[in-house]
Design brief:
- The protein is built from two helices and eleven strands, in the order H-E-H-E-E-E-E-E-E-E-E-E-E.
- It has 146 residues and is mainly beta.
- The strands form three sheets. A five-stranded antiparallel sheet has the order 1-2-10-5-8.
- Strand 6 and strand 7 form a beta hairpin.
- It has one domain: Jelly Rolls (Sandwich).
Amino acid sequence: MAEDTAQAGNDDWHAPLRHIPAAGLSTDTGQSSGMTRKEAVSGKTVGAEKVWMGQAHVAPGTASANHHHGDSETGIYVVSGRPVFVFARDGEEVRLTPEPGDYVFVPPWTPHREENPGDEEAVVVLARSSQEAVVVNLPPGSLTQL
């Protein structure tokens, strides 16, 4: 039986699962001022080829820099806090105010920023369609001017 198990570990159907402890997340990834991104699942950490996952933390009373994620789609799950996601539509800034348990989708190339007007840290889980954490920081100011 041990021989069969050893052989089974060498094919795509039996690749090992990987556990990434919360304490082992890395901040050695794309960053924007005003928030901290922590990398969990990526090419760098586990050899992922098609997905990137991690967390973002936004301290109370702060906002991230304006940024986008290139051609990556981004899915966001709100874990805690009251983050606000700001983007531009028809020349106006729009503010999404999800609650813990809600999800947000960020399309490719869409300039946006995260804000945290609350008094507790906002924590979200991020999933991207590429295994790289693409972060393109943009000039400060209104998103309507970009």
